[in-house]
Design brief:
This protein is of the alpha/beta class. The protein is built from twelve helices and twelve strands. Strands 5, 6, 7, 8, 9, 10, 11 and 12 form an eight-stranded mixed β-sheet that branches. Strands 1-2 form a two-stranded antiparallel ribbon. The chain has a two-stranded antiparallel ribbon with strand order 3-4. The relative contact order is 0.12.
Length: about 350
């Protein structure tokens, strides 16, 4: 599905205590309205007022001409006030996902780095992939100009000083609306990030990456990719329950894990060619491994998660995912795959 909605992150990199991190999105119809507002030199103010007795009032303040245009376009203003899971979640993903250095070498290999290449680590978090790319390039006698981009400033603040001092820029921005110039990068990598946005928005990321890549540039994705719809449903439900127990509200709402068969379609719809899977591994994910890192060491939450996993994992898929129930720990293997594709020359 070709999506053309506009996404902007607002107030994500600010020290003003009274401003909340805000995401703003606009449909194609709304974008026409916003463009008209800009060209006309007018202003529109969207106001949400919360008061006692559950009073909620949402209004749009604009000139009569702009208000009339908004009504003609049948625009509707929606808002959501939600806890940002990534402002809470501070974990070492290598311990959760069981990723080895040799696995990360496969990711770096797929980028086909050349000396002096411009590389974007998108949805980079605290910089584990960037750190590995810098080391990999050095070990192979190459230099790279590396940019790091993530929506969550709290995660970017965790980037080690030696990595931060070695990259071109660290940018707070939404992968659905990148701030970079067209054709800037030789390669873009996303590791375990695509699933953090809703399914309807995932094509937007491919469109943006296509835009910022040079002709012939490589786009590499490492993702959890269940094999079947049944595996996909069971894994998604388990992750949603874990995130609910951990208090990661936005992650519960937003996440969508693609199946392996869906990934080539996303690349091709985004305009990419030479789509291929270059790596596959099955990592064992354990509920007990989430106890300290995400459940705050609360055994009652672990018990609740285990009870849920037992209920929602169909008997029919347990052999295929190597399901093991050891009482306080339930584990299963989850396919992780690396795909690479190129922007046409």
């Amino acid at each position: 599905m070709k999506q053309k909605r506009l996404h902007r992150s607002v107030n994500f990199d600010t020290d003003v205590d009274t401003l909340l991190p805000t995401l703003f999105s606009a449909s194609e119809q709304a974008q026409k309205f916003l463009e008209h507002v800009k060209k006309s030199g007018g202003k529109v103010k969207l106001v949400l007022e919360l008061g006692g007795e559950d009073d909620v009032c949402m209004t749009m303040e604009a000139s009569p001409e702009l208000a009339s245009m908004a009504r003609e376009l049948k625009l509707q203003f929606r808002t959501g006030l939600i806890a940002d899971g990534y402002n809470i979640r501070k974990v070492d993903f290598s311990k959760i996902h069981g990723v080895a250095g040799n696995d990360l070498n496969k990711l770096a290999d797929a980028l086909e780095l050349t000396d002096g290449a411009n590389v974007l680590d998108l949805m980079c978090g605290y910089g584990a992939v960037s750190s590995h790319i810098l080391g990999y390039a050095k070990d192979n006698g190459k230099s790279v100009r590396l940019s790091m981009c993530d929506l969550h400033k709290v995660q970017l603040d965790r980037i080690p000083d030696d990595v931060r001092s070695s990259v071109e820029d660290v940018t707070v921005s939404d992968a659905r609306n990148l701030p970079y110039l067209d054709g800037k990068f030789d390669a873009v990598v996303i590791k375990m990030g695509l699933h953090e946005v809703p399914q309807i928005d995932q094509p937007l990321i491919f469109q943006q990456v296509f835009r910022v890549l040079k002709p012939g540039g490589r786009f590499v994705i490492w993702e959890v990719m269940p094999d079947t719809g049944e595996q996909q449903d069971a894994f998604t439900e388990q992750m949603q329950k874990k995130n609910e127990l951990a208090g990661y509200e936005s992650i519960v709402v937003d996440r969508y894990f693609t199946r392996g068969e869906q990934m080539p379609w996303l690349f091709e719809e985004g305009g990419f060619v030479d789509v291929r899977q270059v790596f596959e591994a099955n990592f064992h994910q354990s509920t007990l491994g989430r106890l300290d890192s995400e459940l705050g060491g609360d055994r009652t939450k672990l018990d609740a998660l285990n009870a849920f996993v037992r209920r929602c994992t169909p008997q029919s898929i347990r052999p295929s995912v190597d399901y093991k129930d050891e009482g306080d720990s339930i584990s299963m293997k989850v396919p992780n795959r690396i795909f690479r594709a190129k922007k046409p020359e």
